[in-house]
Amino acid sequence: MKKTVLSLLFVGFFTALHAQPQKTPTTPATPKEENSASNLTFNPDSQVVTEHTTTIKGQKVPYKATTGTMPVWDEDGKAIAGLFYTYYERSDVKDRAARPLVISFNGGPGSASVWMQIAYTGPSLINIDDEGYPLQPYGIKENPYSILDVADIVFVNPVNTAYSRATSKEIPTTKFFGVNADIKYLADWINGFVSRTNRWASPKYLIGESYGTTRVSGLALELQNSEWMYLNGVILVSPTELGITRGVASEAALKLPYFAATAWYHKMLPSDLQNKDLTAMLPEVEDFTINELLPAMSKGGALDDQKRKEMAAKIARYSGLSEKVVLQNNLDVPYDYFWKELLRDQGFTVGRLDSRYKGIDRKAAGDGPDFNAELTSWLHSFTPAINMYLRNNLNYKTDFKYNMFGSVRPWDDSNDKTGENLRQAMAQNPYLHVMVQSGYYDGACDYFNSKYNMWQMDPSGRLKDRMSWKGYRSGHMMYLRKVDLESANEDIRQFIKQSLPKAGESAKY
Q1: How far apart are CA 312 and CA 331, in angstroms?
Q2: pLDDT digits (tens, 9 = 90+) for 418-436
Q3: How many distinct structural domains can be found in the chain?
Q4: HSE toward the beta carbon, residue 87, CA cutoff 13 A
Q5: Do 35 and 28 meet the contact criterion of CB atoms below 8 Å apart?
Q6: pTM of the model
Q7: Among candidates 492, 477, 468, which has minimal Cα distance to 439?
């Protein structure tokens, strides 16, 4: 599985060309960090509140949006950063203690929360076509599938993403930029946010996308051990490897089901496979991958010539590539080469984060695409939308730049044990459930590797009743496809409902 440490989630916004919510500022419309002088002064503690109404699943839902910054404190109580966030609360709820709270992170690790905020779970939705491609004019509309009907949501932006910043250039970046540093300061920030908003009694959920899955998997245990905060659920959207080590053989073999899904989409498989539905075809590939290909790859150069040819023929059959290409790559075709090779004769490349997208390179020759066709498409629509939405709909005005992707280098990715952290959090907390959501056409965090995560994270099989997996016919951001936007939100809605304990049900084994 390809790691996605500086290129993940994306979130777009659309403006008031469609249904505009009513806006009623309850605090000054201009945050303090916007200075009338030539120099900007960052205020790590600011807030703007607006009132809105939307329609979700045919029901009117009034809500309050709080947009602003809240400090990250050091050990001495000094503000060393301010995190930009948007907090959506349904405003007609009488019992806030029983109301679930979802804390949402995107990935990167240098990505803003824009992607899931305005394209997935939030109450507003970016203006794109039904398959996720850009439309003009840019804008935003109501999200009829948002989970705000069943849970309040806060979208959090780590340091250097969106409008989040350190308070001084003198603050060491090592306090923020690393797997474990990131988890540590965000856990402390969540504690502060929950206290400020009086949400300690609420059932709590974390959702993370891409690198955000590394983040929330680590946070599940950190919140328990350091903040004494226990969760009801963790949702992993397009998960990374979660620190679970792959061997050479497994790294090579596990990508094949993704190759097959992509080849099926582009009609590059033999007719007997192509004529099957996607989810009817994939189990055959998965079975071959685990039971035949993985053992064969484990033999490496000791694999006899006849068996090597048999494996190459089957890999070619399932991947849409030629046997010659497979053999030239020693049965292990790199992701980059696959994206370049699959449609080479048609003059196209396929996308990394979503293989349904096609790109055009300068020349057909080469070992990898010139650019990520899908990411360029998404930034096309998301960047104008989020800037318009924050200013026009949420009334948050600042001269600071909204970082779709911010600099978080150097990033310390050592000692990543987040998959094990999540397992341990589940073992310690009988209430804690996990759901994984994956797109079949995601080549960055592919769907079969996400299944492999679950198998390896729980080697005893004792936790599997609290773990579930959902697949969608789209890519890394499966919610950009309208059909999957509806079904994926409904899956979250049902996950929340089913993971809430019944009245009087104790947290015990």
Answers
A1: 6
A2: 999 999 999 999 999 999 9
A3: 2
A4: 19
A5: no
A6: 0.92
A7: 477
